[in-house]
Amino acid sequence: MSMRIIFLALLLIAHGAAHADGKALFARNCAACHQATGKGIPGAFPALAGNGFVQGEASQVAAVLLKGRGGMPDFSPTLSDADIAEVLSFVRSAWGNQAAPLNAQEVEALRETLKVPAFAAGQMSNKH
Ligand code: HEC
């Protein structure tokens, strides 16, 4: 196999994994309310599929996850900046949605702007 083909194969694998991650994060953290279809439950949990706000300004969508809103929990202590970027990039491109992805650096900067404490998983994982 030529180097070029190996490189392309690796790119495809990396791309698939990144996409699967966002999807898995959504299944674990969001689907109980917003449903795997992204359609939510009318009157209780808003649809994210076909939602204009979700496909609008990325920082405003990320702010909902970092601060919580109404009956929606605050994910700032449970999801890292990379997780938030990954799950929102999935939400913004799944079910026919067509908005640009966002990256961990943008979420990190937003945490600072909103004065939300940095993700602290490290505090609990230092016993080995
Ligand atoms: C416990 C149920 C629950 C879970 C879990 C949950 N949400 Fe929500 N979500 C809500 C509710 C309720 C609202 C409406 C909040 C409001 O505006 O009062 C909402 C609103 C939103 C909005 C704003 C939609 C709009 O049109 O304004 C986004 C974006 C969103 N959720 C994304 C997510 C993502 C991504 C996850 C997983 C990381 C998630 N939610 C997990 C209940 C939930």
UniProtKB/TrEMBL annotation:
Cleaved signal peptide residues: 1-20
Domain Cytochrome c, first and last residues per copy: 17-95
Keyword RNA-binding in annotation: no
Protein name, per record: C-type cytochrome
InterPro entries registered for this protein in UniProt: Cyt_c-like_dom (IPR009056), Cyt_c-like_dom_sf (IPR036909), Cyt_C_IC (IPR008168), Cytochrome_c-type_DH (IPR051459)
SUPFAM superfamilies found in the cross-reference section: Cytochrome c (SSF46626)
Pfam families: Cytochrome_CBB3
Species of the source: Massilia eburnea
Single annotated GO MF: electron transfer activity
Keyword 4Fe-4S recorded: no
Protein keywords: Electron transport, Heme, Iron, Metal-binding, Signal, Transport
